[in-house]
Amino acid sequence: MDNGQQPLVINRVDQYADIMFFFPSKILYFTEIEAANGSVYCAYKEQMPIGIICLKELSDCLDIAYIFVKESYRRCGVANCLVKYTTSLADSAGIPLKLRVVENSQADVALTKIANKLKMSRCGQMISFGFCVDDETRRVWTDERPKMVDLAEKVARRYGSQRVLTFAEATPELLSKIRTGIGQEFSELDPFTLPDFDPTFSVIVVRESDFEPLAFNAVRTIGRKMIYEISSAKSGFTLVAGVSNFFDRLFASDIEYVTSMVHTNNRAGMLHASKRFGLLFKERGLQTVYMRFPNR
């Protein structure tokens, strides 16, 4: 693809001054956020930065969090080279590589072809939900809040009195119970490992009588954007008692946008997003998740 010119070179970005004048400010913002919890690699053509890829090191895989190629260099194999480069990093570490493709986006066809070429396995789909925090959603929440409080009271009559705490308010003993209680039942859901985990918005529902943790939700905040990451509950319990607390804090903050991803096979999560939060969350699109395992 070099057409007689210098071949493509890929290097890790350690100084943002080296690329800050070559990419749009919005792209650099996302890149810098992801790099805070991972690493960024840049593709150079004749010493000119033309594409970047952001990698996060998760507990069980390398996650391609962001990929961008300058428009004049698209459909030239740059994205393919960047993704292929990350596969060598994942293979060297002996861990899987994850790639998410947003359906019906400008890049979905190209990224799907790359995933197939690198023999990445399609491992699921996730639906994206989101909403803007504006006057309209504030009005909707004001109208809907009494219904949510009434629902929480019905849940309390059925399961006993419950109390909602933020992670910031929780004692070390309660946090330990989260790890050993709900954490054992849902070992894959560990809010403490989330990058940019925000304890002031993440809530825990406890049984009032003995402060036993029943449910939790965990979010992370990046600037004025909130990512609603995970929620879970012990069998037979629900997070509904924490909904009013969560939204009250949200609408009193300077958060501008909230988003959530739910796996299409997660029926409880879909119900949670569509019914309990559906008054605000709107479906934004579908993502296909690909995984590549080493030595395949």
Describe the structure concisely.
By secondary structure, the protein is an alpha+beta fold.
Structure description:
The longest helix is centred in the middle third of the chain and has 25 residues, at 135-159. The protein has two domains: 9-118, 3-Layer(aba) Sandwich (Aminopeptidase); 129-286, 3-Layer(aba) Sandwich (Aminopeptidase), CATH 3.40.630. It starts with 8 loop residues before the first strand and ends with a strand. The chain has helices at 25-35, 78-93, 108-117, 135-159, 172-180, 182-185, 243-251, 267-276, and strands at 9-12, 38-45, 48-57, 62-69, 97-102, 121-132, 162-166, 203-207, 212-222, 225-233, 257-263, 282-292. The model has no long low-confidence stretch (mean pLDDT 82). The chain has a twelve-stranded mixed beta sheet, sandwiched between helices. It has eight helices and twelve strands. By secondary structure, it is an alpha+beta fold.
Layout of helices and strands:
Layout: E1 9-12, H1 25-35, E2 38-45, E3 48-57, E4 62-69, H2 78-93, E5 97-102, H3 108-117, E6 121-132, H4 135-159, E7 162-166, H5 172-180, H6 182-185, E8 203-207, E9 212-222, E10 225-233, H7 243-251, E11 257-263, H8 267-276, E12 282-292
Parallel strand pairs: 4-5, 10-11
Antiparallel strand pairs: 1-2, 2-3, 3-4, 5-12, 6-11, 6-12, 7-8, 8-9, 9-10
Which spans have pLDDT < 50 for at least 5 consecutive residues?
Answer: none
Number of domains: 2
Secondary-structure element series: EHEEEHEHEHEHHEEEHEHE
CATH superfamily descriptor of the largest domain: Gcn5-related N-acetyltransferase (GNAT)
**SSE class:** alpha+beta
Number of helical stretches of at least 4 residues:
8
Shape descriptor: elongated
What is the topology, as strand order, of the major beta sheet? 1-2-3-4-5-12-6-11-10-9-8-7
Just give the CATH class of the largest domain: Alpha Beta
* Main β sheet profile: 12 strands, mixed
CATH architecture of the largest domain: 3-Layer(aba) Sandwich
Mean pLDDT score:
82
Number of strands: 12
Q: Mind telling me the C-alpha Rg?
A: 21 Å
Our estimate of the beta-strand percent is 25-35%
Helix content: 25-40%
Terminal residue distance: 26 Å
Q: CATH topology of the largest domain, which one?
A: Aminopeptidase
